Amino acid sequence: MKFTINRNQFINQINNVQRAISAKTTIPILTGMKLVATDKGLLVTGSDVDISVQNLIEQQDADNDLTIESTGAIVLPARFFNDIIKKLPGEQFTLEIIENNQTLITSGNSEFTLNGLDANNYPHLPEVETNDQLTISAEILHQLVSETVFSASTQENRPILTGLHLKISGNELLAVATDSHRLAQRKVTITNQNQNEYDLVIPAKSLTELVRSFSDRDQDVKISISENQILFEFSNTLFYSRLLEGNYPATDRLIPNESTTQLEFDAKSLLASVERASLLAHASRNNVVRLVIEVATKKAIIYGNSPEVGTVEEVLQPTNISGEDLEISFNPDYLKDALRAFGDTKIQLEFTAALHPFTLKPISNAENFIQLITPVRTF
After folding, report:
1. CA 303 to CA 243: how far, in whole Å?
2. Is the keyword Nucleus in the record (predicted)?
C-alpha cells in the first residue's frame, strides 16, 4: 500500500473516526486506526465496540489531493499516528507499507517508521440492512439530541437509562431521556416514507459523538436499523452504534396533567438567577436551592445557602404568576441544564405540590417540548 495525500485534508477528514477510538479498550487492536487504500479512495475506520465510524476520503475529490499508487490495508496506533501527521512539516505526506506491517511516513525532510498491525485481525463492522431507511435532517437530529440527552443517566447500574429512547410512529419522532431524577421529552415531525414504527434506545454517548460529527447541518442523515445496531450515513461517513437492550420505563405517567401553581419567565433571565443562587449551593454538601412563590404579592424568591460560606436571596421577575403559594427545593444544576436547552424563549413552570415533580415548557411549543424535575426533600 502506498498513497500521498494533502495533510490538512487528511486531518480534517479523520476527526470523526478519531472520536470512536478509545485508549481504554480491552481489545488492543481497537486502539488503532484502520487504513484501507482502494481504487475509490482511502477508507479510514475507528471503533471502540460501542461506536464504529468509517470515513471515505475520495480520490476523485481534487481537494484531497489523494494519489493511491498501490492498494492495501494496515492498522496504525491511532494516538501516535495522529500526533505524527499533525507535526509533519510539509503540505502533503506519503504513507507506504514497507515490510512486516512496518509503515514509512514521509513529508518534506521528515521520515517516520511506525509499527502497524495486520488489518485482517481488525473486527468487521456490524452488518446493518440498508434497504429500509429513514431520512432525517442533521439539524433536527442535532436539535433533538442537544435538547434531551443531558437528562440521560451516567450511572451504569441501570444501563437502559444511559440511553435516549426514540419512538417513531407515522411522521412523529418522540425522544425521551431520564435519569429518574429529571426527564426531557421532545417531539418533532419527520418524513417517515416507509411509515414503519420503531422503538429503540441509543446510548447517549453515541448520540453526543454523532452530532459533534456534523460539519454541515443542512445535510440529510440516512438511518438504518437492525436488531441491535443503528447506522447513520452522512457525507462520506458511516457511523454505527449499538442499541441498548431492555424495555425503557413508561415515562408518560410521570408527566402531570394538571398544576396548582404557574409561573412564566424569560428562560435566559431565570437561568442567570439560578446560576447566581447555585454559586453558594454548590459549596454546600446537598447542592439544593429553595424557591418560594407568593402569588398574592406576585413574587417568587430563590434562596441558596451554604453554612460554611453564606447565603444568597434573589427576587425573581416572572412575567406572569398564578395559582397557589408554594415552597419547593431542588437541584439547581438540573434546572440550569433544562433552561439552557430552551435557549432564548418564554417558558412556563408548572407545580402541583412541594414534593411532586414540576415541569418546564416553552409557551410557544408546550405540546412538543417538556422538561421535568423532581424536587428534593429538605425536612
Report:
1. 42
2. no
CB 177 within 8 A of CB 165: yes
Architecture of domain 134-242: Roll (3.10)
| The domain defined by 2-121 carries CATH number 3.10.150.10 | yes
Asked if 260 and 351 count as a contact pair (C-beta separation under 8 A), the reply is yes
In sequence order, the 6+-apart residues with CB closer than 8 A to the CB of 213 are 15, 16, 19, 53, 234, 237, 239
Q: Which fold has domain 255-373?
A: Proliferating Cell Nuclear Antigen (3.70.10)
Output the nine-digit C-alpha cell for 335.
434546572
Angle between helices 332-342 and 267-281 in degrees, nearest 10: 160
Q: What pTM value is reported for the model?
A: 0.92
Residue appearing with cell numbers 505524527: 84
Q: What's the CA gap between 159 and 156, in Å, rounded?
A: 5
Q: Is pLDDT at 346 greater than 90 in this prediction? A: yes
3-state class (DSSP) for residue 269: helix
Q: How many CA atoms lie within 13 A of 129 on its CB side?
A: 5
Number of C-beta neighbours around residue 169 at 10 A = 13
| Helix and strand totals (H; E) in the chain | 7, 26
